[in-house]
Design a protein that fits this description.
The protein is built from one helix and 14 strands, in the order H-E-E-E-E-E-E-E-E-E-E-E-E-E-E. The protein is mainly β. It has two domains: about 60 residues, Roll (SH3 type barrels); about 60 residues, SH3 Domains (SH3 type barrels, Roll). The chain has a five-stranded antiparallel sheet with strand order 6-5-4-1-7, with no helix packed on it. The chain has a five-stranded antiparallel sheet with strand order 13-12-11-8-14, with no helix packed on it. Strands 2-3 form a two-stranded antiparallel ribbon. The radius of gyration is 20 Å and the shape is elongated. Keywords: Signal. This is SH3 type 3 domain protein. It holds the Pfam family SH3_3.
Length: about 150
């Protein structure tokens, strides 16, 4: 009896698991630095403008081509934006019709306001499944499943 195949299988399984975890944890997000930034169909200024994005709009980086980033938003729309027009400052966007903003990181905390779909909040901190957010007129906590990313 030989154990060689089993020994080869275990490291490959561990390697596959490690790759899967790094892929999930490896997502990188940025936010638009000012209002009216163009999201383009290709990595140069001669391509079509797909959308004009507001300040704070969060994006996931898919790849990089020179000074251009290929990005995706919470609805899966993809395009290109120059690196100089984004920052690492974390923002989130409400992805549901309406959500409660609470005074603390618990469903038992009082409601201090409402968030509606497509409203952008600055992410202040995170505690478990709750994100502390701020907006010029409101600061509070929201369940992370209700916002993106």
């Amino acid at each position: 009896m030989t154990f060689r195949p089993l020994i080869k299988t275990i490291p490959l399984s561990l390697l596959a698991s490690a790759f899967a975890v790094s892929t999930v944890l490896g997502a990188e997000y940025v936010s638009v630095v000012k209002d009216g930034v163009n999201l383009r169909s290709g990595p140069n200024t001669n391509t079509d403008i797909l959308y004009q994005l507001p300040s704070g709009y969060p994006l996931e980086i898919l790849s990089k081509e020179g000074q251009w980033l290929k990005v995706s938003d919470y609805e899966g729309d993809k395009g290109y934006i120059t690196e100089s027009l984004v920052s690492k400052t974390p923002y989130v966007i409400v992805k549901v019709k309406e959500c409660n903003i609470r005074s603390g990181p618990s469903a038992n905390d009082s409601v201090v306001g409402k968030g509606v779909k497509d409203v952008i909040f600055k992410k202040v901190e995170q505690k478990g499944d709750w994100i502390k957010i701020s907006h010029p007129d409101l600061t509070g906590w929201v369940q992370k499943d209700l916002v993106w990313p």
